[in-house]
Specification:
The structure holds two protein chains of two kinds.
Chain A lengths: L17 E5 L7 H9 L3 E5 L2 H6 L2 E4 L9 H6 L1 H10 L4 E4 L1 H4 L4 E2 L14 E4 L8 E6 L1 E2 L14 E6 L1 E2 L6 E6 L3 E8 L2 E4 L7 H13 L3
Parallel strand pairs in A: 1-2, 1-3, 3-4, 4-13, 5-6
Antiparallel strand pairs in A: 6-10, 7-9, 8-11, 11-12, 12-13
Chain B lengths: L12 E9 L2 E6 L2 E7 L1 H10 L4 E6 L7 H13 L5 E4 L5 H10 L3 E4 L1 H5 L2 H10 L4 E9 L7 E5 L4 E6 H11 L3 E6 L11 H10 L4 E4 L5 H8 L8 E4 L1 H4 L5 H10 L9
Parallel strand pairs in B: 1-4, 1-12, 4-5, 5-6, 6-7, 7-10, 10-11, 11-12
Antiparallel strand pairs in B: 1-2, 2-3, 7-8, 8-9
Classes of the chains: A alpha/beta, B alpha/beta.
Chain lengths: 215, 266
Amino acid sequence: MSSFKTMSAFKTNGPTPTIAIVDYGAGNLNSVKKAFDYLGAKTIVTSRPETVAAADKIVLPGVGHFSALGDLDNTGLREAVLQGVRAGKPLFGICLGMQWLFEGSDEAPKCVGAGILAGRCQAFPSSVKSPHVGWNSLKPRGDSCLLRGVAPDSFVYYTHSFHAPVVDATTATTEYGALFSSVVERENVFGVQFHPEKSSDVGLRVLRNFCEAGL
Amino acid sequence: MRPVCEVQVLTKRIIACLDVDNGRVVKGVQFVNLRDAGDPAECALAHARDGADEIVLLDITATSDKRRTMLDIVARTARGLFIPFTVGGGIRELADAAAVFEAGADKIAINTAAVKDPSLIGKIAARFGSQAVVVAIDARRVNGGRGGFEVFVAGGRIATGRDAEQWAREAATCGAGEILLTSMDRDGMQSGFDCELVRIVADAVSIPVIASGGAGSAQHFIDVFDINNGRADAALAASIFHFGIDNIAQLKSELRAARVLVRWPC
């Protein structure tokens, strides 16, 4: 469908970096892989900590319930992802994967997030329908690597029931009953609440910006 | 269930629906008299380029022997599509749903199988998330609507005796992520959505309701999205988009002029 350019002109001198898409048993990762593949990125869907450790970049996708992230702890994936971050590898959390970057979520109070960003994820106020499903707009907030080339107020596709607070690392916000973080970035850690793989050309641009981050 | 405050920040979705029979897109009137409208993958990409916010592909005569063909079509359609993609028709158990997701769908729509066994909704939701489960409801007015709205299954062929509002509520409780609500009375008629039906269901559940059946003009979409009328979160149409009667970009610009928030530029 997309008129969006693929990454045949991928700006890299060395071999194409390998992106590990972490599979912790929640939901359907095909769409995320398909979008990266469309852009010419080299991806591997994996549930093995050693494969995550060997990759150059890490994507933590996620749909469903925050408690599913508990499986990261039981499988050694949590440590593999955090070690990668400490080693300076770019990490990209999508939807639930972005929420995991925070300390936790009211959706599953016993489940501990990565704590890279301060604060907890909360439910939407009762003044709006939940889940938040559909296309909503991005309000940029400060410099952003992920939103390079993306116009302010661009629409992206969401589907979620809990939302992350606005923090120092927030580079875009979205409003739905409350103002929440729709994009977060801190050094080599990136996250988006929306689904870039389902957000048409805007989403493909965000994925491509991640592919090019740190090159 | 309905929010008290209605500050509209979320856009109303325009969903293009492809009814597929024997590998081709077809469109009928009140579920019969099918006309050919093209190749599913090509149609889906054309609608996406034209500004559709989502694509729904329904296998309207799903049988087990044709399922492989259908999965090929799903895979071929999904390949170049980067907007939400829902597939329905012939999904009877968890394994069917898993195969459709594997082929590239983001959401599945279930109808007959969910009425037969509502626990199927929860089973699919537990594995793929509620956001991936759309419960499709085909409803028809009883005594012109004085007797409420009755749910039909098997492509509109079998009356269930069940009330649409109650079934929508139960489906939501079971874990459905969205309701795709089709008025059989209005299907293919291009005489407007059944706003009364849509409003009753939208008020009964807290999950999004997609209105279907009857789209014929921009005004019909304005009516079905109106908080004082249909209250739909999204609207789906097939006929008007297939035969060049309208295109989605034109529809969206008319909606914008009527102050309906839509994804733009699309």
